[in-house]
Amino acid sequence: MHQIRIGNLEIDVFRKDIKNLHLAVYPPNGRVRIAAPLKSNEESIRLFAVSKITWIKNQQKKFHEQVRQSEREYVSGESHYVYGTRYLLTVIPDSPKNHVNIRNKTYLDLYVKKGSTKEQREKVITEWYRKQLKSEIPQIIEKWQDIMCVEVKDWGVKKMRTKWGSCNIENQRIWINLDLAKKPKHCLEYVIVHEMVHLLERNHNDQFVAYMDRFLPQWRIIKNELNKLIFY
After folding, report:
1. Cβ(195)–Cβ(166) below 8 Å
2. What is the pTM of this model?
3. 43 lies in which domain range?
4. Residues 118-136: what's their mean pLDDT?
5. Per the domain annotation, does 7 fall within a domain?
6. DSSP the chain
7. Which residue, 46, 80, 133, 194, is most buried by CB atoms nearer than 10 A?
8. pLDDT tens across 141-180, in order?
9. How many domains is the chain partitioned into structurally?
């Protein structure tokens, strides 16, 4: 990977075994990435980027205008999201065991030991989010393996800054962004389907889009919803 600069815009360039140039702008900060064929020269990549400047700026503007939560302090009264539903956090100190519980349609209770720090409270909630995803992902994968006739040999959950998911095609392993525990469940399913389609088609080309249209016709709507509001 290397970078090119056009004005004040930095663009990450990755060379891959593909036929065409591909441009993407990623949330939450509008990072720009170009995937380029191995034989493409620097000038052709730069000209391609220049031709897309207006589109890039518009995409970055959308991300910058999105409503984001302020920095979390993990104290009572904060808003936290679980599968797209907003809850008010209630911190219950002096608990013998750290755990999280959804009390009703309004409150998310965080039980922590007395004197817990922000970092310790964050860790408890983060691990709880991870547990929620790990209880949902297997059934979604199993459902779509039968439909798509592919096999996911391994999967995992981790924090990712610029992607909702990734796929290691050779090892047939997919990774899911931890923050999807904050999004509606149909967004989680969309990301899993997207990554599993890569087991049928490596690149984001016309064939990939055709698979997505076949398996999940409403995927564009879900994709837009997924990127509309960043719950960080």
Report:
1. yes
2. 0.74
3. 2-65
4. 96
5. yes
6. -EEEEETTEEEEEEEES-SS-EEEEETTTTEEEEEEETT--HHHHHHHHHHTHHHHHHHHHHHHHS-BPPPP---TT-EEEETTEEEEEEEE-S-SS-EEEE-SSSEEEEE--TT--HHHHHHHHHHHHHHHHHHHHHHHHHHHHHHHT----EEEEE--SS-SEEEETTTTEEEEEGGGGGS-HHHHHHHHHHHHHTTT-SSSSHHHHHHHHHH-TTHHHHHHHHHHSB--
7. 194
8. 999 999 999 999 999 999 987 789 999 999 999 999 999 9
9. 2
> Does one domain contain both 115 and 173?
yes
Q: CB-based burial of residue 2 (10 Å sphere; 0-12 exposed, 13-18 middle, 19+ buried)? A: exposed
Do 209 and 101 share a structural domain? Answer: yes
More confident residue, 168 or 7: 168
Same domain, yes or no: 27 and 131: no
Taking the CB of residue 1, how many other CB atoms lie within 10 A of it?
7
Written as one letter, the residue type at 183 is K
Within a domain: 163: yes
Q: Is residue 100 part of a domain?
A: yes
Sign of CA dihedral 173, 179, 181, 183: negative
Per-residue pLDDT, 199: 96
pLDDT of residue 163: 86
| CATH code where residue 216 lies | 3.30.2010.10
